[in-house]
Design goal:
Blueprint: H1 3-15, H2 21-40, H3 51-63, H4 68-87, H5 114-121, H6 129-144
Helix pairs in contact: 1-2, 2-4, 3-4
Length: 148
């Protein structure tokens, strides 16, 4: 029913935004699943889709146990799709216009204690060239804050 709109939007993502095929496939699935949800709930016209429909869908996904990163992608997929439809004149109002994007929390990496760092730095045998090289590499990694 909405395949023409989805195909056009995905072509824009591919050609203009140069997104990977995996991302495009994910967006396709996200949009199709949402539109199926709308049809199942009696909304068969794109102009009749509201922010409440989208919120209800996202709430259902959350209750189904989807991760916040997946929900963030759903929001991104739908915001992009409806923005495209609105800008192209296919719909009168973008139902995602006032929606906020999902902010993902970032977990801080675990860090080693000073004692653990000292133990690691003491491992190479600095009496030979290889050990000296290894110690220099470890010192460089530590002093620059590099993560492995």
């Amino acid at each position: 029913m909405f395949d023409q709109f989805i195909s056009e939007y995905l072509a824009v993502l591919s050609l203009e935004k140069n997104l990977s095929q995996n991302t495009i496939n994910s967006y396709r699935n996200d949009i199709k699943n949402f539109l199926s949800f709308c049809i199942d709930n009696g909304v068969e016209d794109l102009d009749n889709i509201t922010q409440k429909n989208i919120s209800d869908y996202l709430e259902g996904q959350r209750k189904a146990g989807f991760e916040s990163s997946t929900t963030a992608r759903y929001v991104s997929s739908l915001k992009g799709f409806f923005s495209y439809l609105h800008q192209s004149g296919y719909i009168q109002k973008d139902p995602t216009e006032d929606m906020l994007s999902v902010k993902l929390s970032r977990k801080l990496p675990t860090v080693l204690s000073v004692e653990e760092i000292d133990m690691i730095l003491d491992i190479p045998d600095v009496k030979d060239k290889i050990g000296l090289r290894d110690r220099a590499i470890l010192e460089l990694m530590y002093s620059c804050g590099l993560r492995v």
